[in-house]
Amino acid sequence: MHTKFFYLHATIVCMRREETVDYHIRAAWLAIARMYNQQAAKHEATMAEGFVLLNIDVEEGTPATKIAPLMGLEPRSLTRLLKSMEERGAIYRKVDENDKRSVRIFLTEEGIKGRERAKETVVRFNEAVREEIPQEKLNVFFDVIQHVSKIIERDTIFETVNH
User: In the CATH hierarchy, which fold is given to the domain comprising 20-150?
Assistant: First the structure.
């Protein structure tokens, strides 16, 4: 056990940040987020607001409780975000006709326009990436990133072995 721990510890200590998987994922995501926020700021919005707009069904609306999981947000954070978007006139809330306990979020005309801008931004970014990176490499990337997600979902990374 001690030898294995020492080896593992020595490997990590000798690792430069550029050699870690999370560094590259985080660096890429921060660059993407910065780019999306810069585009959203041109319309006095944020990337998070754009993602909300993209996750609301245009015809049926979307239950408020379903939006946070779609975006990987905590419900409290989403509540503040929705309140802000409602105050700005991008969305409105309506009690679900089938389940009076549930509230659905709908897009206003302004919200629909914002959704289209957000969609154009995402599509343009993906087109730019696909213009420069061959599909075979993207397929490998998608496979790797999905595998990383599965490793995390197993939730066994940090389990300790009882001795």
Answer: Arc Repressor Mutant, subunit A (1.10.10)
Q: What is the pTM of this model?
A: 0.79
pLDDT tens, residue by residue, 15-40: 788 789 999 999 999 999 999 999 99
* Domain boundaries, given as residue ranges, for the chain: 20-150
Compute the half-sphere exposure of residue 104: CA atoms within 13 Å on the CB side of its CA. Answer: 17
Alpha-carbon span 70 to 132, nearest angstrom? 29
